[in-house]
C-alpha cells in the first residue's frame, strides 16, 4: 500500500484539474494543492484521471497470449467449443502460468487494476488452472488484484466429480462458485442451481452464472436465479444474460425490476452476435452492470486484446450509443459498474481505492473513442505501468 500525489488531474465532470492524494493505497483527499510532504508525486498535465478498469468477466486461464499464433479450429456452437477446448489444451501447454502472466501484464498496461476471472475446474484438469492463475498473480506481485470463479466449463451435473472439485477450490480460497446454462447445457436447472447455491452457502462464496440460453428458456432461468438470490445471502451475478436483451418489453421490464429487487448484478462482454442488454433501463433501475473481455486469444476465440477501453467501445457501438453521456454509460460498465459487481468501491472520494488510469483525453467519451496509450496506471497508490509498459 503506497502513498502518491497525482497533480493536475482532470476528474470527469470537473471544470478544471485538481490534485488527488493517495495514502496507504486509498484516496485521502482531493482538491487544489493537497498537502503531502515527502509523498512521491506525478504531474498529469491536465490529463483525464479515470478509476482503474475492472474486467468483470475474464477467462485468463485459457489464454494463449504471448505464445505463437494458433489458428481457430473449433466448430460453431457452445458444445463444440467446450469439446475443442478440452481436447486441444494439453498439446498447447494449457493452462500456462507464462501465458496468463503475459495476458494479465497486457491488461495492466491497458489500465485494468482488478479482474474477475472464471477458471475452469474439471475432472481431467482438476485444480491445475486455479494454481496457474495463482502463480501468475504471484509473479505480478500486487500490480493487479483478482477474484476467481470456480467454473464448471465442461459441465457440472454432466461431469460427476466436478462439484466436489469446485468445493475443494472454494475451500482453498477461490472466491466464487460458477454455473453454466442450467437448462440448455445441463438439462436440469433445479438440480444445477441446488448444487451451485449449496456450494455458495457452504463456503460463503459469491455466485456467477454463465447464461447463454436465449428466448423464453433464458428468461425463465433469470426468474429461477433471481428466486434463489432472494432466498440466499450470496452476492449473485448473471454473465451474458442474452435473453434479457431479446425479451419482449413487458418481460424485460419485469426482469429488470426483479434484478433490482434481488440485488442481482450483470456482466456483459458485448458480443456482436447477441442483442445489447438494456443498459439505460438497468442503470435507471439501479442494477449494476460490469463489462469484461471474456476469453482473449484462446481456443474459443482468436480475438481480444485485454483492453477495457476497447470493450467499452464495443459496448457503446453494440448499444448504438453516440452521445457523450451514452458513451459514458458504456465506460461506467468498465469502471464503477464492474467495481459494484465485484463488491468494490471506485472513484475519487476519501476511502476509495487508489486505483487509477490516466489518458490523454478531455472526457470519458473521448477516451473510449480515441483509446490513447495509457499514460499511467496506478494500483493502490503504486505506479504499475507507464506509457504502455509495466513498471
Ligand atoms: Zn465467460
UniProtKB/TrEMBL annotation:
Positions of the Amidohydrolase domain: 108-385
SUPFAM superfamilies xref list: Composite domain of metallo-dependent hydrolases (SSF51338), Metallo-dependent hydrolases (SSF51556)
Pfam families: Amidohydro_3
PANTHER family xref list: BLL3847 PROTEIN, CYTOSINE DEAMINASE
Protein name as it appears in the record: Amidohydrolase
Record organism: Nonomuraea longicatena
Lineage of source species: Bacteria, Bacillati, Actinomycetota, Actinomycetes, Streptosporangiales
